Fold this sequence. Notes:
alpha/beta
Amino acid sequence: MENKKFKEKLKINSLYSLIIPIFYFYDLSLRHKKVNYKKGLPAVIYAIWHGKQYGLSCIEKKDRKNLSILVSKSNDGELIAKICDTIGYSLIRGSKGRGGAKALREGISALNDGQNIAYTVDGPKGPIYKVKEGIIKIAQLSRAPIIPMAPQTKVLFEANSWDKYQIPYPFGKITTTFGEPIYVPKDITEEEQEYYRQKLEDKLLELSNKIHNTV
Length: 215
């Protein structure tokens, strides 16, 4: 078991060493246009589809430490976490299956301390474009607003995976549209939780369709 863990860690570190120089300059090459971006809001929860996480690259380098990204504790997540940390983001480790309760507490704590967080709403395993209830619970307990965000660009690569994970072209232009804040009251019923979950899902789909038709 220990030998297996060592091999997995070695593989992750090797991939990281190979990828990070390329990824660092790739990140710098991207050009961004932000639509309806409201800077200076109190702590917010950015809601984004799992396969379109490239949209988070629109956050300026100097602001990235104030954005915590929720990353799973899987082997893939370990590699993603190392890359995100190197290019400036803060991290919260965990998912619904592994470390979920801890990640929930850390997310709420970060928001209460004035830190923004990013949440991939249909992750970690889908189904695609279906918002999970976790983000509603975080918003409910923290009283932080949810900001839907939808990026669009010319795609270099789309993975054959449940989330159709996308990678933009180097030097490509990414247009990211932000929705209006969604506030979730603290004391609501399960039916009302579903209302806000569906509201967020509808808004993300609306933003995605809108930007797809205009870019």
